[in-house]
Design goal:
Layout: H1 5-13, H2 25-35, E1 39-42, E2 50-55, E3 62-69, E4 90-91, E5 94-96, H3 104-120, E6 125-132, H4 143-152, E7 159-162, E8 174-176, E9 178-179, E10 181-190, E11 194-195, H5 206-218, E12 232-239, E13 247-248, E14 251-260, H6 266-284, E15 287-296, E16 299-300, H7 305-318, E17 323-325, H8 333-336, E18 342-344, E19 358-360, H9 361-380
Parallel strand pairs: 3-6, 3-7, 7-18, 8-17
Antiparallel strand pairs: 1-2, 2-6, 4-5, 5-19, 9-16, 10-14, 10-15, 11-13, 12-14
Helix pairs in contact: 1-3, 3-9, 5-6, 7-9
Amino acid sequence: MSVDPVALTQQLIRCPSVTPEEGGAIEVMERLLSEAGFATQRCDRNGIANLFARWGEGRNGRTFGFNGHTDVVPVGNPDDWTYPPFSARIEDGILYGRGACDMKSGVAAFAAAAIDFVRDTPPDGSIVLAITGDEEGDGVDGTAAILDWMQDNGEAMDHCLVGEPTCPEQMGEMMKIGRRGSMSAWITARGRQGHSAYPHRALNPLPPLVRYLDRLASRELDTGTDHFDPSTLAIVTVDTGNPANNVIPAQATACVNIRFNDAHHSRDLSAWLQEEAQKIEADTGITLDLRIKVSGESFVTPPGELSDLIGQAVTAQTGLNPVLSTSGGTSDARFVRSHCPVVEFGLVGQSMHQVDEHVRVEQIVQLKTIYGRILRGYFDRG
């Protein structure tokens, strides 16, 4: 009997799996895949639920992998929702609920396609599903934990598809062949507090901090590369915590976020941030302390076998030739890219993370069909 991806999506949405809570969603997938003949293994780490599932005999033949997540962002105020956020209500052909778009429907569509595929035409090879409950968080104990377990246990994927919503407005219009890197720097400028009427008795940290931020924001990082738009640096916070208008504060803080392309590596950008801070310190006597966090490096999977395969399946189903894009934020593809070639394709993402998150029921069915075409095309190629 064919697996209904819509009913499975509803079942997953009804699991309140707000990061880091498992909410029952990983258990639903583990039970479903085990009953379908997949060998399953929980790869939980530090309280995060993760699932590895494989159909086939390991390294006999090629292995096609899928990566997705069942965790979701918080719902906000439930009273702002037209329908309860975990009700999985269908009205006028639209399924509502947190995770409907991002990305329980993608997980359901691939699982349904994979189960039907191995039942109908068992491939000469293996299919792996790596499902995490920590994509919407820091991710260090999610997909990364599954990949660590795979390495320790001799498991591998030759190619991987990530089921994130990739289409801006129309089903089939875009896939992601890479992602920009992301890093943030928190800057603390330390001076000496004093009365604003006697500025010579204080050491105001604000002018040097502002100079530093201006130097960063004024620099053109690059003009773009073959597959990426220009890198960007955004000043996202500046704060003194000072409620008085007659006090020069002792310190001030700021934060910048950099989204960078494959012309850069985080270590080079980190060195630049430190060098600019040292120049300000030398000029002003104000100490600038930096704390830098890298969320992921930029990467690109060059157009080729995997993107061609996915594009052909999408075109056959939708009539559209998907654009090869590297836009958007980070995804768990940033972990997979060190393991094997990876491309992302999924639903229209207009409502992700919003109140009344939703997806058209017909698109879930369509996505299952596309994923089924990808699997048939992959294993037909041998």
